[in-house]
Specification:
This protein is mainly alpha-helical. The protein is about 65% helix and about 5% strand. Strands 1-2 form a two-stranded antiparallel ribbon. A hairpin with a 5-residue loop joins strand 1 and strand 2. Helix 3 packs across helix 4. One of its GO terms (molecular function) is DNA-binding transcription factor activity.
Length: about 260
């Protein structure tokens, strides 16, 4: 019997790392969870001991990762009985951080990442349409009706959580792990497009169509819709990279990033 995996997006974020012992991996996983809005402002992270257990790493690795997050002004650590590490930012430092990451990738590398990321997402969407129960489909649609904020930050949180739930509904542990790895590596860059209001509206409409196809049990339609959306986002990001390399703005028009 095939194993069932329905932990939801938040639990998926804390899934064990494939390569334990690297603070950078822990920091990247948590950073991108904050950027995507899965971890929200004011939220207290699990304890250092609990993070080490969930990620399958040493305690010192978690502590080093939290130092990186504090240096990036993403979390703050408070002492005392009600203390711990708390998320303190959702948007302010991310534009510079992500643009730096974008400049560090060659066009051919970005294009290849899009192919890989899209292929994983298409597989998740197809399996989700085949296997999702009505309750699963409702949970997926729930991401689209409970946006955690407005503007680019809220759109990223909604879209990022939606993609994670889509992977979870595939009910394939390997697909979920690979999606998490790829989303941590590439998802926030892909979702830079959501600083553009027009792109934001198109993605929101596309996600509603994807959720509806999954609810109807239409795997081919779900796969096609995901592929179309990934292609549109990839074209936007490649154009944005070209603009910035020529000294222009990240966004072609005025937009809230």
């Amino acid at each position: 019997m095939e194993p069932q995996l329905r932990p939801g997006a938040r639990e998926a974020i804390f899934a064990q790392l494939d390569e334990a012992g690297r603070a950078e991996q822990v920091a990247r996983r948590l950073t991108d969870a904050i950027i995507l809005g899965v971890l929200t402002p004011g939220e207290r992270l699990p304890s250092e001991q609990e993070l080490a257990r969930r990620f399958g790493v040493a305690l010192i690795t978690v502590r080093d990762a939290l130092v990186m997050l504090r240096d990036a002004a993403l979390v703050e650590t408070r002492r005392g009985r009600e203390g711990g590490s708390f998320v303190i930012q959702t948007d302010a430092p991310h534009g510079t951080l992500l643009q730096s990451r974008l400049r560090g990738l060659a066009q051919v590398e970005l294009s290849d990442l899009f192919v890989y990321f899209s292929t994983i997402l298409e597989g998740c969407a197809e399996r989700a349409a085949l296997r999702a129960s009505p309750a699963d489909a409702d949970r997926l649609r729930g991401w689209l009706h409970t946006a955690p904020g407005s503007g680019a930050a809220g759109a990223r949180a909604t879209a990022g959580g939606f993609l994670l739930e889509l992977a979870v509904l595939s009910q394939s542990p390997r697909l979920v792990r690979e999606h998490i790895r790829l989303q941590a590596e590439f998802g926030p860059l892909l979702l830079l497009a959501l600083g553009d209001p027009q792109a934001r509206d198109r993605v929101a409409a596309g996600n509603r169509e994807i959720a509806a196809a999954i609810a109807r049990g239409e795997p081919l339609a779900a796969r096609t819709l995901v592929a179309d959306q990934a292609r549109e986002l990839s074209e936007w990001l490649l154009a944005a990279k070209t603009r910035t390399e020529r000294g222009g703005p990240l966004y072609a028009a005025v937009a809230t990033a």
